[in-house]
């Protein structure tokens, strides 16, 4: 008898356990149970027959969690080294980096994102809000926090693999990201603001998110994106001067899968220099 339950860390046997998931929900009846899964390392949501799942050992789980921590710490170290000149300037000039509002559908990723921004000294607010709630919450949060940069992410995925790219109903959460971007642009018009927006997750409907008004989005090639990729976009926009136009060519080499994972139309940076 399969003992898979909510909260278990699992892999799909039919896929060779290529992605490590956490079970967030189990639906169905005693004869046929389906597990709703979210990636432990990648921003993907999927479902699976419970019979196809295998519990990942504690050692394997710890290895993945250690790799995640190492990836974040290594990225922070790289950023600190690259941005040493910015730190030196900040000690001599009044430099204000762009303010980030980050909405994330995953609680664990929200916590990791907050740690990432904090360690880099970026001005940020991170909110754990389920993808389907993001369109309803974003306007109010934009009013309250008045950010320069909006990051909207969580989990996504295609229901039918490699088919129906142009069918919004073939994406688990892309419609919510699209609605959230539209709400953010409505706020922008109402308050005469200018916000840089990233939106999307694994396999998201890239073209529709960009058409809705995002500056950067995932996933042009309908591939998995790294947990940390949206954070890199936020960081780059926040530390780029507001008279400099930032394009994907300035970012893609630092993303796991480059332009296949994230692309966009670009935006002006959000860092300001004020005379002392």
Tell me the layout of helices and strands.
Blueprint: E1 9-12, E2 21-28, E3 33-39, E4 45-49, E5 53-55, H1 58-82, H2 84-92, E6 94-96, E7 100-104, H3 107-119, E8 124-128, H4 134-145, E9 149-153, H5 174-191, E10 196-199, H6 206-212, E11 216-217, H7 229-239, E12 245-246, E13 263-264, E14 267-268, E15 272-274
Explain what you see.
This protein is of the alpha/beta class. The protein is globular. The strands form 4 sheets. The chain has a 6-stranded mixed sheet with strand order 8-7-9-10-11-13, with helices on both faces. It has a 5-stranded antiparallel sheet with strand order 4-3-2-1-5, with no helix packed on it. The model has no long low-confidence stretch (mean pLDDT 90). It folds into 2 domains: 9-56; 69-274, Response regulator (Rossmann fold, 3-Layer(aba) Sandwich). Helix 5 packs parallel to helix 6. Helix 3 (107-119) links the parallel strand 7 (100-104) and strand 8 (124-128). The chain is built from 7 helices and 15 strands. The chain is 34% helix and 22% strand.
Largest sheet: 6 strands, mixed
CATH superfamily of the largest domain: Response regulator
- Beta-strand share of residues: 15-25%
**What are the low-pLDDT stretches, counting only 5+ consecutive residues below 50?**
none
What's the overall average pLDDT, rounded? 90
What is the class of the largest domain in the CATH system? Alpha Beta
What shape does the CA trace take?
Answer: globular
Reading side by side through the largest sheet, how are the strands ordered? 8-7-9-10-11-13
Number of domains: 2
Structural class: alpha/beta
Order of helices and strands: EEEEEHHEEHEHEHEHEHEEEE
Corresponding CATH architecture of the largest domain: 3-Layer(aba) Sandwich
């Amino acid at each position: 008898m399969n003992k898979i339950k909510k909260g278990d860390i699992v892999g799909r046997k039919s896929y060779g356990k290529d992605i490590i998931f956490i079970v967030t929900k189990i639906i169905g009846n005693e004869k046929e149970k389906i597990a709703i899964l979210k990636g432990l390392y990648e921003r993907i949501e999927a479902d699976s027959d419970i019979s196809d799942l295998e519990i990942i050992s504690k050692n394997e789980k710890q290895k993945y969690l250690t790799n995640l921590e190492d990836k974040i710490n290594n990225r922070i170290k790289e950023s600190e080294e690259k941005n040493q000149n910015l730190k030196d300037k900040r000690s001599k000039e009044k430099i204000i980096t762009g303010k980030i509002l980050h909405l994330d559908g995953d609680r664990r990723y929200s916590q990791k994102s907050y740690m990432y921004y904090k360690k880099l000294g970026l001005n940020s607010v991170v909110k754990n809000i389920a993808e389907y709630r993001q369109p309803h919450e974003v306007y109010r949060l934009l009013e309250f926090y008045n950010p320069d940069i909006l990051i909207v992410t969580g989990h996504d995925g295609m229901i039918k693999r490699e088919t129906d790219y142009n069918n919004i109903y073939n994406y688990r959460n892309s419609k919510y990201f699209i609605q959230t971007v539209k709400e953010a642009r409505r706020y922008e018009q109402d308050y005469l603001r200018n916000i840089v927006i990233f939106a999307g997750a694994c396999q998201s409907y890239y073209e529709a998110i960009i058409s809705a008004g995002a500056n950067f989005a995932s996933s042009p090639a309908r591939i998995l994106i790294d947990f940390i990729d949206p954070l890199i976009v936020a960081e780059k926009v926040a530390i780029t001067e507001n008279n400099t136009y930032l394009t994907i060519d300035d970012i893609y080499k630092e993303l796991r899968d480059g332009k296949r994972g994230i692309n966009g139309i670009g935006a002006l940076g959000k860092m300001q220099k004020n005379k002392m």
